[in-house]
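Subject: two folds for Thursday's group meeting

Dear M.,

Sorry for the delay on this. The cluster queue was jammed most of the week, so I only got both jobs back this morning. I'm pasting them in the order they finished. Each block is the input sequence followed by the predicted C-alpha cells. Could you check whether the formatting survives your parser before we put anything on slides? The first protein is the one we discussed after the seminar.
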Amino acid sequence: MSNTSQYVVQTLKDPFPPEMSKRYNTFAKRILWIDGDMVPGAFQMNCAWYFDKLETSMGDHIHDTDEILGFFGNDPEDPYNLHGEVEMWIGGKKHIINRTAMVFLPAGMRHCPIHIRRVDRPILHFSVVMEKNWVTKESSTPNDPDYDYSKHIVTRLDAPNFGPEFVEGYKTFATRILWMDNRLFPEAFQMNTSWYWGPKNHAPVPHTHNCDELIGFISSDFNNPNDLDAEIEMWMEDDKYLMTKSTYLFAPAGMKHCPLILHRFNRPVFHFSIVREGQYKLITAEQKND
C-alpha cells in the first residue's frame, strides 16, 4: 500500500443501517460515499443515480456548514436536459428543477423535502457538505417570506474567465457543465463539474492547494456505475493511479497531485473537483519557491 492509498476511494462503504439502505435502493443506486471517518481529514460527499420516483423524503432540516446538492442529466450531448423533474423545498417554498442544477445551501438554510416527480432516464445526484459527516439538525428559525430562495438553484454555466485559448482547448476533450464559487455566493466553496470524453494530457504540472480538494471520476453507465469504461492516470505525491473504476481522490491541503492524463474513453466520464476555499487556486513548485 502506498502512502496516498488511504485517500483513494473506489469501493462503496454505505454508512447507513440496512433498513435505510433498503429503502434508498428502491429509487436510487448509490455509487460512492466519502466522509472523515473513512478518509482522514475528508469532508463528506455522496454520489448516486436516481432511477425512480420518490414521493416522500426526509423533512425540513439544516446543516451547520455549507452544502451543495447536484441534479445532473446524464446525456453529455444534451447536458442541461435533466430528463426528469425534481421538486425541492428551500426556505419553506417549493421549487421545480427540470434542468441540470447545483443548489447552494449556506449553513443554516432550511431545505427539504425532496420529491422525485419524474425520471425519464437516470439522474446523477450528489450532495457535499463541508464537514466530517453528514449531520442534519432541526431549526426553529423562521423562513424569510421575502427572500428569493430560487437564486440558490444554479442552472447555467458561470465560470471564471480562463481566456479564449484555454476555453477552446478544453472543448476538444471535455464539456464543462456548471461552476460554483464565491463570485456567485460570497460564502460558497468552489466546485467544478464536467463531462470528460476525449484523451488529453490535461494537467501536466504537479501542484498543491492551501486547502483540501476532492476530485471525482464517475461512470456514466447507470447499469455499471463503477466501471468507467475509460482509463485515467492521476498522480498523488509520487504515486501513480491508473483508474478504470469510479473514483474519489482526496488531496489534503499541501498534498502534491497531478499530472492528470486522460488516456482512453469508450464513453464519457462525469468529473468534478471541489476545494474548501471560495476560489480555485493552485500552487506549482516554481510558485512555492518564489
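Second protein, same layout:
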Amino acid sequence: MSDKYQQILGVRFFTGSPAEAVDIGIAGGLVVVPAAPALVEMPDDPYYREALLHSDLAITDSGFMVLVWRFTGGKALTRVSGLEYLKILLDRPQVRKPGAVLYIMPTKGSRDKCLAYLQSIGIKATEDDCYLAPMYPKGAINDPALIELIKKKRPDHIILGLGGGTQERLGLHIKQSLDFKPGIHCIGAAIGFLSGDQVPIPMWADHLFLGWAFRVASEPSRYFHRYWKARKLLPLMLKYKDRLPVSIIP
C-alpha cells in the first residue's frame, strides 16, 4: 500500500494532503468522509460498510480515529478534514462553472443558506442546482427521482450535505446507478459550517480536532449523545486495527 494510504478497520484511507485529496476526488468517483460516530456502526450496518469499502476515496476526517491510531502504535497520520476538503474543492474552477454541481441538501432552509453562501463566494448556483433529499430509511437506498434528475442534468460533481451514515449509502446508490462518473462528494455538515446553517467551526479549531466541541456546545441535546457514542471507536480500533471487524465478515 502506498505511503499515502493506510488501512484502518478494513477501509483504505488516504493520508496525503488535503489538496492532493481534492485532486483525486475531482477526477470522479465516490468520496467519503467518515466521522467517528458513524464508524462505530460498521459492525452492525452492512450498507454503510459497503459504501466505505466501495468508495474511490476515503479521507481521514475523524480526528478521534487519527489520534487513536497514533497513540496505539500506528504511524502518525495526516488528518484531511471534510471542512478543509470542501473549502479547497469550492475554489477549483471545475466546480465553479454554472451547472457543474448538483447539491443534495436535507431541508429548504439548509438549501437556501447553501445557495446564499455559494453566491457570496462567486458561485452562481440556483435552486435548479439543488435536490431536497427525503428522509431515507435504514438499509439500502433507492431514489429513482434523484437518479433520473442526475441522468438528465449530468453534473460533473454532486455534493451531498446530509448526515453521516446516510450520505455514504446514498452516494453508493448514485455511483452504482449511473453510466458516467461524476465526483460524488459526501461532505456532510461541512457546507453547513460555511453557510451558517450550523455553528461555524474556525479553521484553528478544525486543525486541533475540536470541531465536535463547538457542535456539542451549540446544541448539547442534539449532539452530546452522538459524540458520546463515538467513544466506542476506541475498543473497536484496539481490537481490529487495520482489519475488518470479524462480526461483519460473511
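Two things I noticed about the second structure. The chain has a mean pLDDT of 88. The chain has 14 helices and eight strands.

Cheers,
T.
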